[in-house]
Amino acid sequence: MASTSNSTSSKIITLRSSDGEVFEVEESVALESNLIRRMMEDDCANNIIPLPNVTAPIFYLVIEHCKKHAEMKDNKEKKKELRSQGEELLKSDPHTYSNLMEAVNYLDIKSLMDLTAQWLADFLKGKSPRLIRELLKIKNDFTPEEEAEILERNRWAFD
Amino acid sequence: MVSSPFRKFDFEPGDDSSGFGTYRQLGDPEFNPCPPCLSAPDDLWAIFRGGDYKEDSLRFHILLPFSSLPSSPTSPFRDFLHRFVNQLLNHILVCQEIVHSSSVCFPLMPFHEKNLSSMANKRMKNTRVVPLPLDIIIAILSRLSVKSLLRLKCVCKDWFNLISDSFFVHTHLQHAKANSGFIVEMPIPRGKFHRFLGEIVSNPHFVEFQCDRLNYQSGSINRSPISSSISWDPFFFDSKTSSKNKKSCFSGMAGIIGDLTRIGATCDGLVLLESLSKYGLFYVCNPAMRQWVCLGREIGRREGGQTWGLVFNPNIRKYSAVRMTSRGHHDICEIITVDEIFESWTEVWVPQPHRSRSFPPVYANSYIHWMIHHRDIPDLEGNLGFNPQSMGYILTMDVISESFHTVSHPKCESGRYTLLQMQGLLSFADHASHNQLDLWVLMNVKKPTWIKEHSIHLDSIGRSVRTKSFLDDLFPLAILENPWRIIFKWTKRSRKMLSYEIENPSFSAVNLQCFYTAPINNDILGDGARWGPKVHANSLSCWT
């Protein structure tokens, strides 16, 4: 492994994304993922850890977010910065955002799951059901009567 | 040497034509990937929008298959780049001459962000969008407010079922609890009360609740605290949106709003209200969902000192109301399942000679706990005396089996203690001395194991707080999460509460605009505590 360029003493873990790209990640970052932690504890991660459900560009995002999240602790400005980046991604490219969430969910990174879910929740707040259907590509499978009934039952919530 | 078939290729606009710019690998702190704005055809990998605009050009990061990367800048590669750029972007921009093979500089003009995203959207429409997995949907929705969720019920059938599902309700509750506030009764000054009643007649569906989310400022008490109370929507008992059963219940009561109620207990976002005019009736409502149900049977006279509890029975997945009434020298405990139809109270045998105190019981993890008196148990002659059997115990009921037993509590020298709930466990606050309060947590109810969780020393915090002591004027009301803090009633100032942060030991004052409790006499552990503010979180909980 030609990881001589890395001067830090921390251990480097090699991961392979679904499309075959190999990543070298510091152990402290990799262990944020409970999935990788479990694999390492079970000793089934001797060489390269395969991640069959994560593609390389998404994995880039995950790692960047992990690093920033680690920096962000006790730093309100960093927190704000990360949040605004997340929101921008959500607005500009919801598809990637949902891929990111899936990857975070698969890798089981609790801190990032909290963050990404909270951003999306904040984003959905106050949006109309119709807009949300469009944004998340959900098909409305109610008949107009059914929809009207549900709407009527919670009419005050739409004020 | 290079095991990866893919490499991130960063096109750095260089001013010489010699190289490609630099490879920047992951782990390089300077590398700052931007979201892929569109996915490329199969032979190309992805195109990343560069983070910055350089003069009049836009920078790109391009991911290329390693196989297509030449070892040295050759003209075939330059041609390839040209082709690639044209293929990908020709319908939104006319690619101008590429100055260097190492840099792809696009004129900014027609190529602004809007075009880029519309192109990305076009592409996305063609790709099949896979719906998010259920656990992610749950993670997102459980962070939304009750009002939003009621709206989102009409997104699709899956969401409708999910939001109504008990598992989801539970998950949502856990998030809601992390943001608990207090539900506080609105004072109704006596003079205004009649006027209020008069208004009620014309608008018979209206009851006002106010819930204050505590906002506080950490630090010294001498600084003026931030006072911000978020008032909730006025809470409507709306007959239009109620089901048939509720409606009849409503009309049968000739408008419950003329009814004066008091908050008896709260649990998981439900509130139990005791009627103060129609003795024997009580209401269970979810203020966030604007749902309510009237329970109980009216009786002619007012019963003596009652304490209420609202509990969740995990076995039958239902809520139950628990009522402890003191009659003469003994207590009667009654329990009833909260449901649309009121059946009748079931009496539960209370071990004698213990007598519960007039404090509201504390519900924690399917057990409900009462403080008991140490004295005033009559002897044979009827004199009130000291009952050594009750010393050092609390009275506990297992909600599932509906059976009582006593649990020994930590040694409490001063004899003054308060029961609280902390993270679903019973917590015992020992008013150890004037300047010390110890917080214990009950780990196992069956085999009582207490762990000392925290100890507050007034001396170590400093006397910036002008309070006397834990024995005289500080009375713990609740423990709230996020961050962990204990809320004290500050009896010297009737409209103030104190918040003590556990991890960063400091007091701060909490101002509530409408904080009202019954006046407190000299005895801080007296009756005044019974009607204090109750912890509440907006939830989807319901009784059906």
Automatic annotation (TrEMBL), chain A:
Domain named SKP1 component dimerisation: residues: 110-157
Domain of life of the native organism: Eukaryota
InterPro entries per UniProt: SKP1 (IPR016897), SKP1-like (IPR001232), SKP1-like_dim_sf (IPR036296), SKP1/BTB/POZ_sf (IPR011333), Skp1_comp_dimer (IPR016072), Skp1_comp_POZ (IPR016073)
Any one Gene Ontology BP term: protein ubiquitination
UniProt keyword list: Ubl conjugation pathway
Span of domain SKP1 component POZ: 11-70
Pathway connected to this protein: Protein modification; protein ubiquitination
SUPFAM superfamilies with a match to the protein in the record: POZ domain, Skp1 dimerisation domain-like
Function per UniProt: Involved in ubiquitination and subsequent proteasomal degradation of target proteins. Together with CUL1, RBX1 and a F-box protein, it forms a SCF E3 ubiquitin ligase complex. The functional specificity of this complex depends on the type of F-box protein. In the SCF complex, it serves as an adapter that links the F-box protein to CUL1.
Stated family: Belongs to the SKP1 family.
Quaternary structure and partners: Part of a SCF (SKP1-cullin-F-box) protein ligase complex.
Record's protein name: SKP1-like protein
Organism of origin: Cinnamomum micranthum f. kanehirae
From TrEMBL, chain B:
Domain F-box: 126-171
Gene3D superfamilies, alphabetized: 1.20.1280.50
Designated name of the protein: F-box protein
InterPro entries: F-box-assoc_dom_typ3, F-box-assoc_interact_dom, F-box-like_dom_sf, F-box_dom, SCF_F-box_component
SMART domains per UniProt: FBOX
